Amino acid sequence: LTDLVPGGHFACRVESANVLGQSQRTQLQSIDEVYNVSFYAGGREVASEFVFAGGSVTPPQAPDIEGRIFSHWNKQVSDVNANTTVYAIYEDASYTVTFVDYDGRVLKTQEVAFEGAARAPQAPAREGYTFKKWEGNYTFVTQDTTITARYDPIL
Known about the structure:
Elements: E1 3-4, E2 8-17, E3 23-28, E4 33-41, E5 44-52, E6 68-73, E7 84-92, E8 94-100, E9 106-113, E10 129-135, E11 145-153
Parallel strand pairs: 4-7, 8-11
Antiparallel strand pairs: 1-2, 2-3, 2-4, 4-5, 6-7, 8-9, 10-11
């Protein structure tokens, strides 16, 4: 392969020797058209591949992006007949925040977007105790989390 031009033709050169040992050159041109398929994710190219006209490409694995979940590539790459750019489509990640009482009883669950904040339920009542605080981070959520009610005994 001597000339590989995306969106164009490619040529190859074949060299052979005749029965007298003399070198002969033959150049074949315009065998088929070749195209470039590029894959982008998170604003950068993650893969690029040449493909013959009418061919197909298997998409690469999309990279992980914090706070996002890969959904799909924006187009299929089969029967390629032009240079093609394919983009990864991501969705916002969401996490479950679970508020529990001292005994593990679930008081409230809430879905929260990545780096979002949950809304705490009303402070629970417990005989012989006063509610002190919700223990755990629920104001900058980056994973599923459990928040526990903490109490001080009434003296």
